[in-house]
Amino acid sequence: MLRYQTIPVTPFAQNCSLVWCDDTQKAAVIDPGGDLPQLLAAVKALGLALEQIWLTHAHIDHAGGTGELAEALNLPIVGPHPGDQFWIDGLPEQSMRFGFPPAKPFTPTRWLADGDTVQIGHCTLNVRHCPGHTPGHVVFHSPEAQRAFVGDVLFAGSIGRTDFPGGNHEQLLASIRERLWPMGNETVFIPGHGPESSFGQERRTNPFVHD
């Protein structure tokens, strides 16, 4: 069974998630934006074997620590979709602009596309390409656990910004309605910032995307 622990990192309080297979204790980290000592302390405390880095998208608060962590532990970087190449290329500039530590450049070991899967231990998650916040944004969905790690596509009561380069408001709304809602009303999502919610709750109450 998939388990996870969410750890807010960086001054932007980005929800970095450790996800692991309960059978094997093999783990991936989703969106290591920074504060790597805190993340590695949690890995150790949980007794996990960290094996992969998964990225939803390449904004600095989600991807800023990726290059350093991958290099230090020789970890593969999985995702995002190639549409975010320009954001990866711009990470050093992003780090300066927002006052983050210098971001090490990196090249993903594996790009992701809509319909792909990722695996950690015995747990397989589905990948959906959900552009709008960024062109290459992806979401990781575990039907078994009824959990989705959605980055900055959707929040409790809100949606992702679309005023950054490559953002597209109509595309974001389509991603939510066409790719997230079919995952089911009972599915709980872990957003890039703020509290968890369920797709059903957002369909009822979110002013941006309610039915």
TrEMBL record:
SUPFAM superfamilies: Metallo-hydrolase/oxidoreductase
Entry-linked Pfam families: Lactamase_B
Region (Disordered): 192-211
Biased composition regions of type Basic and acidic residues, renumbered to the chain: 201-211
CDD domains listed in its UniProt record: YcbL-like_MBL-fold
InterPro entries recorded: MBL_Glyoxalase_II, Metallo-B-lactamas, RibonucZ/Hydroxyglut_hydro
MF-aspect GO terms: hydrolase activity; metal ion binding
Keywords per UniProt: Hydrolase, Metal-binding, Zinc
Cofactor: Zn(2+)
Residue ranges occupied by any Metallo-beta-lactamase domain in the UniProt entry: 13-193
UniProt name for this protein: Metallo-beta-lactamase domain-containing protein
Organism: Comamonas serinivorans
Native organism taxonomy: Bacteria, Pseudomonadati, Pseudomonadota, Betaproteobacteria, Burkholderiales
